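Example record

The entry below shows one chain as it appears in the dataset: sequence first, then structure tokens.
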Amino acid sequence: MRPLRFFLPVLILGAGVCTAAGAQDYVGVGMSLNTFFSPSGQPFRAPAGQPYPIVKWFEQADTDKDGKISHDEFVNDATAFFNKLDVNHDGYINSPENSTYENDVAPEIQRTDPRIRQPKNYVAQSDADSGGGDTDPTAGRYQKQVIGASQYGLIDEPQPIRAADSNLDFRVKIDEWVNASNQRFTILDRNEDGFITLDELPKTPAQIAGEAPAPDAKKSKAKNENGKKKRFGGY
């Protein structure tokens, strides 16, 4: 099994730089939950009511069409996306190219969709027995959040490009990218059989939110159930 490293949490940076090459996959972006980001950060979008577009990525990466993604297919798919982002073909994704990614290719990472469920953050209460001091050593400074590409992806990486920058020089070399891709494959290959299948992949936060009943539907269902109880409760 390949060794894992923790991906570095990063801030989303960048000023607007737009190129036609970076824009070719842009298909109109709103606050759509029917959006999927591949492990490399490539966005896939589908109209509302259509199947969740993880299938589009899977079919793209599964080049031999055997219903599973091998390690080589996974890395080749990631490398193809790297080459698309490396507009000047110098073997790096530099800061301007990363800005193009953030502002044009995947603008969703700059927003937080309010429909996506956020993890609960428990606020430490004062302990009266210890003189009323706050028992939370962070004093509430750190809050867990699902943000950026993590809203639409399989791995909790808010910015997949920056996450691959292992030497923190604000550019990603192809070697760093392949290394990150190896680790991402290991994370997703949960049964460690050397392949990734659709049924072993988790649902993304956006997919979970998109499949949840609308708030009005929940209220209507609860009202109907309460009505049934009242109507037949005395019989």
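Notes for this example: The mean pLDDT is 80. The chain has one domain: 20-113+147-232.
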